[in-house]
Amino acid sequence: MANQTGSGQSGQQNAKQKMITGSAWMTAGSITSRILGAIYIIPWVTWFGIYSNQANAAYAQGYNIYSIFITIATAGIPSAISKMVAHYNGLNQTNMSRKLYRAGITVAIISGVICAAIMMVGAPLFAKGDKTVTPVIRSLSWAILVIPWMSITRGYLQGYSWMAPSAMSQFVEQLFRVIYMLSATYLIMKLGSGNWVHAVTQSTFAAFIGAIGSVAVLGWSYLRHLGEMKEMSDRAEPLTQDVSAFRLILDIVYQAIPFIIIESGIIIFQLVDQYTFDPMMRAVGHFTHYQLDVLYALFSFNANKLYMIVISLASAMAVTAIPLLAEARVQDDQQGMREQISSILMLFYFVMIPASLGLSALAQPIYTVFYRYDPAGVTMLKFAAYISIALGLYTVAAAMMQGISENMRMMKYLVIGLGIKLLLQFPLIWLFKGVGPLLATGVSMTVINYLILHSFNEEFRLPFHRMARDTNQILMFSLVMYAVTAAFVMVMNLFTSPYGRFTAALTMVVGVFLGGGIYAYLSLKFRLADRLLGPRVGVLRDRLHIR
């Protein structure tokens, strides 16, 4: 009995370590690629000069079409593959996992070719005859050929809880893309013909270059793990029934549909804003078309691009959670699932709360660096930073629901939240104007999060009494960090101009190190990091001489 207990505790610790390591890799890959995807805007827009608005418009229109086809081509399959691979691995049927991967590749090739062909041939139709957008859409169709295979392979490796390849490939994909697009833009706009359409077309073709870089990393990682996968296959249980490739493909598509809906939750809420904001604002006041465009851009594009960097932290944890919970579910390990859910939640709070409060404290210099100084934009970003906590928790909690195969319940909660969003949208826009849509989203997501956590507690009896101490410390340390960082920004504004990008960048960099340093010191000093990240953190504390 003691051996079984010890073995169970060892398994839980191993799962927790996998989660922490996987989350660390996915967080690093996600946030660095997000930051790269934001920073390139500054030189890219500068080099286009007077054509920057036209270039932005063509780029955005092309990418909107591209995003639709990426969703269709990948169709939630990577997450579905990750979950199914973890399921079969949990049953010690790794041979089925490999067969599943081969079936997934077939789906990826077929969907990639079909979607790329439709984009290539239908580009003039999607561009509504605009000759500046048509070549942009066609240049993006090349990436559609590669990205489905790339996504399937990421999902397959994640199913084994190997998160490093996905994180590395994500970073390399963004790095190759940014290097190519900035190089091509500079060569065309500064040294070449100055044709802005050609420059935008090459900038969007960079998605294909990035995908090739990602495929190279994933291919190398697959070969590196091939021996380990073969050993697992040799030890696997023999297949009790021969499942056809066609049946596996149907299973993949069936599993993918809930992932598409649930993972699109935030996008669905943004679409509600896109189609209701203008008519509702016109109903509550006299606004010009220009004023509505500015207000919509403040919360839907400018603030969104920055707070999504913070939410990417949650997305990284979500990717890690799915296969671990799926494996525990198939083994009917109630204690393991309870421990993993509570650990994931605490890790989320540990990262997301200080990140969101830090974004709010540094909203003014961050916004100025990326978009130039705008008091309304800064206020919107501060408010959006708090809403990002609810959005991030949805990302993680929804992933955990998928991990324990509660897809239908999760979709029910999403429908309830969407209904609340639709009910609150008009009255909150009437009361708070441009902040209204964000507030409606925040309230709706909070309700969804409550329903999910209540569901977890009903099934697993989460140890909230044990989690309370750590949660309170996280909140207290985050508030201390926020107060010091916000005070630092106020002092800097007394001696420097808040309007300049250089001084704003200096304030931002120093503020990030100051706030991060305070939170890290308090977490190490009071052993919070040890409890959430493991005993290895003690080595860092010793090196920093924190007692």
Summarize the structure.
With 547 residues, the protein is mostly helical.
What this model shows, in words?
The chain is mostly helical. The protein has a domain at 11-235 and 245-254. It is built from 21 helices and no strands.
First and last CA, distance: 39 Å
What structural class do the secondary elements suggest? mainly alpha
User: DSSP strand (E) fraction?
Assistant: under 5%
Unreliable stretches: 1-13
Tally of strands = 0
Outline the biggest β-sheet.
Answer: none
Task: Give the integer mean of the pLDDT values.
Answer: 80
Assign a percent range to the helix content.
over 70%
Q: How many helices?
A: 21
What's the order of the H and E elements?
HHHHHHHHHHHHHHHHHHHHH
Rg, rounded, reads: 24 Å
Topology:
Blueprint: H1 2-39, H2 41-48, H3 52-74, H4 77-90, H5 94-126, H6 134-159, H7 164-191, H8 196-224, H9 226-235, H10 245-263, H11 265-284, H12 289-330, H13 334-361, H14 363-371, H15 375-403, H16 407-432, H17 436-460, H18 464-495, H19 501-525, H20 528-533, H21 537-543
